[in-house]
Specification:
The chain has about 110 residues and is mainly α. It has one domain. It is built from 2 helices and no strands. The longest helix is centred in the C-terminal third of the chain and has 64 residues. The radius of gyration is 35 Å and the shape is elongated.
Length: about 110
């Protein structure tokens, strides 16, 4: 039997709904307004700094792309190495088996 005064919130039937603008809409519009106002008041020095920041971000993205490419090349090299090792071991095993067969045939 369930206690009617329990703290089981999943059994509540009343839902409280907020009918105003969502948090994201409210603060996104305020942020856009602030950005427009601040961009009007931006000095030449701030513009230069922003250009430098943008260049640095593009360089970071370029370095990340190059690093990802190097990681991919490294992974491909590891796969190639592993396949060569497997081929070598298979060939060595085949030679060992062939040598054993030759020794066995010479004894017969």
């Amino acid at each position: 039997m369930m206690n009617r005064f329990s703290n089981d919130y999943s059994t509540r039937t009343t839902k409280y709904e907020y009918s105003g603008p969502s948090y994201e809409q409210k603060y996104k519009s305020k942020a856009e307004e602030y950005w427009k106002l601040s961009s009007l008041e931006q000095t030449e020095e701030e513009r230069e700094l922003q250009d430098l920041v943008d260049k640095m971000r593009s360089m970071v993205e370029q370095f990340r792309a190059e690093i990802n490419e190097l990681h991919e090349m490294h992974d491909n090299a590891i796969q190639k190495r592993d396949s060569l090792i497997n081929e070598y071991q298979t060939a060595k095993y085949a030679l060992d088996v062939e040598e054993l067969l030759m020794k066995f045939r010479t004894k017969i």
